[in-house]
Design goal:
alpha+beta, Aminopeptidase, 8 strands, 28% helix, globular, binds coenzyme A
Length: 153
């Protein structure tokens, strides 16, 4: 999959095990206190039920999404999505999200987002997600998580 940011091309491809160090760096930059540790990310990379996509520009990993396809439930969950801050606002987050939806081939996609994460909530809303429930105190610092859902088909 290829697209362009301003006049910079970027591509979206399957993330591989060798991308793990770059994904770990991206997690820490994007999430600081919520970042997955290396072991959890290794689990994500090895889990056969997990879809892993990366955005690449200038040969560098600049975005990542992991999503779990739950065939029995007929849905998918976005587990993590992040873009390096210097590349924000150029459609890369949206491209990763829509690519994950397409590749999962499920009828419904869900995710959890911090109540205070206005930028991510805006992206999800623009992409057709709606708030369906609240997980009280979901995050380790006690902040609520909003569960958002999109009917893909
Ligand atoms: C949330 C996140 C993934 C969004 O990534 P992004 O690449 O900035 O997302 P997009 O560019 O697709 O959309 C964001 C904005 O860019 C704008 N945009 C989209 N395509 C654009 C384009 N081609 N040119 C200019 N602007 C564009 C959108 O209108 C949107 O604007 P707004 O939010 O100011 O209304 C990113 O901010 C991030 O990594 N945050 C930290 C991690 C995080 O919170 N992840 C979500 C956890 S639930």
């Amino acid at each position: 999959m290829n697209a362009a940011i301003a006049d910079q091309p970027f591509s979206i491809d399957t993330a591989r095990l060798f991308d793990l160090p770059a994904i770990h760096r991206l997690e820490r930059v994007c999430f600081s206190k919520d970042a997955y540790d290396a072991l959890t990310l290794l689990g994500l990379m090895l889990n056969p039920g997990m879809l892993r996509l990366k955005a690449v520009a200038r040969g560098m990993l600049i975005g990542f999404v992991a999503a779990e396809r739950r065939l029995r439930a007929g849905d998918g969950w976005i587990i993590t999505i992040g873009v390096l801050p210097e590349f924000w606002g150029q459609g890369i987050g949206q491209a990763l999200l829509l690519a994950a939806e397409r590749e999962m081939k499920v009828a419904r996609v869900k995710l959890t987002v911090r109540r205070s994460n206005a930028r991510a909530i805006d992206l999800y809303t623009r992409c057709g997600y709606r708030w369906v429930a609240t997980s009280r105190g979901y995050y380790h610092d006690g902040e609520d998580g909003l569960i958002m859902e999109k009917e893909v088909w």
